[in-house]
Amino acid sequence: MKRNVRWMHVLTGAVVIVLLLGVCAWAGGDGDVAAQMAEAAGQGSSMPWWGWPIILLFFCFILGIIAVLAGVGGGVLYVPLVSGFFPFHLDFVRGAGLMVALAGALAAGPGLLKRNFASLRLALPVALIASSCAIVGAFLGMALPTNIVQLCLGGTIMFIAILLLVSKNTAHPEVKKQDALGLALGINGAYHDPSNGQLVEWKTHRTLPGLLMFIIIGVMAGMFGLGAGWANVPVLNLMMGAPLKVAVGTSKFLLSITDTSAAWVYLNKGCVIPLMAIPSVIGLMLGSFVGVRLLAKAKPAFIRYMVIGVLLFAGGKALLKGLGI
Amino acid sequence: MSEQNKGMAAPEQITYSNFLFYGCWSGLALMIVTYLIYVLGFMGPHVSMSEVVRLWSQPVHEYLTQGHAPTGWDWVYLLGKGDFLNFLGIALLAGLTILCYIPLIPAYLKKKDPIFAILALAEILVLLVAASGIVGGGGH
């Protein structure tokens, strides 16, 4: 047990050091670690071609651990950090980011659905809106100039960081009366809470405004190649009144549908390069697997604040890049 | 009281979950195998490694034109090449949700729940449109 705790501290320390070193390198180089890397990679660098996939695999493995400990999806960390640290163009980073978010959501789906933490009745109407809008977002992202997308990405990432800092989700929101739309669609359910063994019944309210919010969420998910768990959870929980466990579970499951539509757009446009996308997916999946095991023992508050700090920094950097500063 | 309100997942939800479980892990296994075939050089790539490394810092249209890389479903014609063989696993993961949705339609119709059967059908159509590449095409 003591050994486990010590191992966990060492691992968490390593994660912190790697991330901080990366951020320092990124900050210190006037942003141009990526440019230097690109130059090195492109023009006769001593780095062999297999160097980048291996670095990416380890980087994404650590990202996967951090993402689970901080309670965020992989895509939201992957896109700003990989587009900053690595020599890849934003087009390919967004394509790979969607594959990363999609793979994570697909892998989590079966367990969530079987335990009733994800509800098909809640997910189906929401998914139809979000996935249609994700296609529109993906086209917008591909059509707009890179600096504009970078600017919007920066703003969004900073907004997510602030949202993570201030949002206080409610475990069991009070829904006195279900609204007509929620009732007509039969959006309700129940799950066994393993922490107290009780059956928790739930239903939704404010269903229409909640569904309309997914227009914006879908467009943003497609445009930036992010999963949109950071936005799904507050809407499902705070606005529509789903219990936090159902909101988190359904949000994760929803990503598997929303990101599918956007992923196809990027795939069809040639934005998925297997040499970099596949190590990203595998690294993040393995990291998430280790992260879930650490989660039981970890006190992730520090990691969470660190991630908020990194997101603020990454968002600021993307904003400056978009402004050409 | 329905299964859902007793805390148990509805039968169609269990079916979806089973499809997802087997499809997801098959896709990941396929990805690992095809990636190893590619990077270990068992099958030559369409875009050479040095070209990929040179072009991945450029916008996608540079990669497409200089690397002669395909868009849409044209990668299917290049499955004999190591790099595009990887698209099998990627396409399986990206297409899995469509496969999972198909059994939902008869399940909801059987439950006399036509609204959800229509929602499932509409979602399949949306995802098929996205997958088909009908809307848009080519790099920007």
List the helices and strands and how they pair.
The complex is a heterodimer of chains A (325) and B (140).
Chain A: H1 2-28, H2 32-42, H3 51-70, H4 74-85, H5 90-114, H6 120-143, H7 146-166, H8 180-185, E1 188-193, E2 198-203, H9 207-224, H10 229-239, H11 244-268, H12 274-295, H13 301-322
Helix pairs in contact in A: 1-13, 3-12, 3-13, 4-5, 4-13, 5-11, 5-12, 6-9, 6-11, 7-13, 9-10, 9-11, 10-11
Chain B: H1 11-39, H2 49-55, H3 60-66, H4 82-85, H5 87-101, H6 104-110, H7 114-132
Features:
heterodimer; A: 325 residues; mainly alpha; two-stranded antiparallel sheet; 4% strand; B: 140 residues; 7 helices; 63% helix; disordered C terminus
Helix content of chain B: 55-70%
Q: Based on CA inertia axes, which overall geometry of chain B fits?
A: elongated
Question: Helix and strand succession of chain A?
Answer: HHHHHHHHEEHHHHH
N-to-C span of chain B: 53 Å
SSE order of chain B, one letter for each helix or strand: HHHHHHH
User: Low-confidence stretches of chain A at least 5 residues in length (pLDDT < 50)?
Assistant: 14-44
| Tally of individual helices of chain A | 13
How many beta strands in the DSSP annotation of chain B?
0
Report the sheet-strand fraction of chain B.
Answer: under 5%
Terminal CA distance of chain A reads 50 Å
Strand content of chain A: under 5%
Gyration radius of chain A, rounded: 20 Å
Major sheet summary line of chain A: 2 strands, antiparallel
Query: Averaging pLDDT over every residue of chain A, what do you get?
Result: 78
Summing up helix and strand content along with how strands pair, one would put the structural category of chain A as mainly alpha
Largest interface, with counts of residues having CB < 8 Å to the other chain, equals:
A-B, 72 and 75 residues
What value does the Rg of chain B take, in angstroms?
A: 20 Å
- Summarize the main sheet of chain B: none
Q: Total domains of chain B, how many? A: 1
Helical segment tally of chain B? 7
